[in-house]
Amino acid sequence: MSGRTFTVANQITTLRLIFVPLFAVLAVDGRYGGALVVLAIAAASDVVDGMVARVFHQQSALGVALDPAADKLLMSTAYLVLSFRGALPWWLTFLVLCRDAGIVVTVILISLISGYRPFSPTFWGKACTVTQIAAVLAAVSARAQIQFVTPGLLRGFIYLAAAFTVISGIHYLIIGRQRFNEKPEGTMLS
User: Fold this and answer.
1) Do 91 and 170 have their domain in common?
2) 97 and 22 assigned to the same domain
3) Does 189 map to a domain?
4) pLDDT per position in the chain (190 positions), as tens?
5) 163: CB partners within 8 A, 6+ apart
6) CB of 171 within 8 A of CB of 125?
7) Residue 135 domain-assigned?
8) Which of 139, 154, 18 is nearest to 81 (CA)?
9) Other C-beta atoms within 10 Å of 155: how many?
C-alpha cells in the first residue's frame, strides 16, 4: 500500500462524499432528474478512484476504509431519503440498514475480541451491492419518469435487492463466525 495518505484516488473518493448531501437535497426537493445525474457521477467516481488506485499504485489504508464508507453513506442516505419520499418501501430500507449495521457490529466485535480479521468482499456481498444500487437507480429513474422503468420493473428490483440482502447478511454471519473461531496469526495452538 502507498505511504501517501491523500492520494488522487482518495481525493476522488472524498469528492463522492460531497455527492451525499447533494443527492439528498435534490431527492427531497423532488428533483429526481438531478438526483439521477448525481448518482451516475458518484458511480463513475467509484470506478475511477479504484482504477486510479490500482494503475498508479495509490492504494492506502485511508482508501481501504474511506471507499466503502463513502459507498455505504451514499446508499444509506439514498435508501432513507427514497423511503421518506415513498419511492422505496420502508421495509427494504430497514433490511438494508440492519444488514449493514450487523456487519459493522460483527467486524468490530471480532476485532475487539479476537484481533483484526480481514473481511474481503464475497460474491454474495457484491451481488447484494449491485442489486441494492439497481433498486435505488430504478426508484430514482421511476420518479424521474424514465419511460422504460415500469412499476413492475421497480418492484422486481426491490424484491431482488431484498433477497440478496438477506442471503448476503446470512453469508457474512457465517463468515464472521468462522473468523471469530480462527486463532490470530502468531499465536500458538494449545
Assistant:
1) yes
2) no
3) no
4) 445 677 898 999 999 999 999 999 999 999 999 999 999 999 899 889 889 888 988 888 788 778 888 989 999 999 999 999 999 999 999 999 999 998 888 878 877 887 766 667 789 998 999 999 999 999 999 999 999 999 999 999 999 999 999 999 999 888 877 776 766 554 433 3
5) 131
6) yes
7) yes
8) 139
9) 13
Cell 480481514 sits on residue: 118
Q: Measuring CA to CA, which residue among 135, 126, 145 is closest to residue 78? A: 135
On whether both 58 and 142 belong to a single domain, the answer is: no
Q: Are residues 126 and 167 in the same domain?
A: yes
In a domain, 17, yes or no: yes
Instruction: Name the residue type at position 137.
Output: L
- Model-level pTM? 0.86
**Residue of 79, 183, 56, 52 lying closest to 133 (CA atoms):** 79
Joined grid coordinates for residue 72? 455505504
Residues of the domain holding 174: 86-183
The answer to whether residues 90 and 18 belong to one domain is: no
Tell me whether residue 132 is in a domain.
yes
Backbone conformation region of residue 188, classed left if phi is above 0, alpha if psi is from -120 to 50, else beta: beta
Q: Kindly state whether residues 118 and 59 are assigned to the same domain.
A: no
